[in-house]
Amino acid sequence: MSKPFLLGLTGSIGMGKSTAAGMFADAGVPVWDADATVHALYAPGGAAVAPIAAAFPGAVRDGAVDRAALKTILSSDKQALSRLESIVHPLTTAAREAFIAAHGDADLILLDIPLLFETGADAACDAVLVVTAAPEVQRARVLARGQMTEAQLDMILARQMPDAEKRARADHVIETISFESTRAAVQNLIAQIRGRHA
Predict the structure, then answer these.
(1) What does the DSSP assignment read for 116-170?
(2) Which domain does 195 fall in, by range?
(3) pTM for this predicted structure
């Protein structure tokens, strides 16, 4: 039995990554979601709660990681982020490997990882898909959600690898112009990968 083909999915905020991941799931592809995994690690009973409580006093409330409190600690201590990553990254990697093992009979697995290149997780993938959109489309989508200001968006974009660099490093790029064109591109890519690795 050949092992599943691991396709990494990434893209900057507002590029349509969650929508694309949903399309893979709709097509029957198992999808591992890095963000959902971190949420579970931070939730009551999550594996990250005790080590974060020990490393960052005040960051855990009612048995769960308080993201707002943690954010405050991170913003006031330059070394805090690398300490946090040294706790969370190994737990996330272990969860990803367990998911892959549990879906060993699948021919294709999608790994939805927002900071795929930034964390070096692309090394664990057989290929990488980057979703993209024009900068003005990206900005309009994010601001339409009503959850952040232009200044907050600029801060996030400054921390993420530039879209052009992600596209340059990707094996596949899908421009998320419309729902229909994105779904067609996703279906074509699934067929292409399955055809190559049948």
Answers:
(1) TTTTTGGGG-SEEEEEE--HHHHHHHHHHTTSS-HHHHHHHHHHSPPHHHHHHH-
(2) 1-30+106-198
(3) 0.90
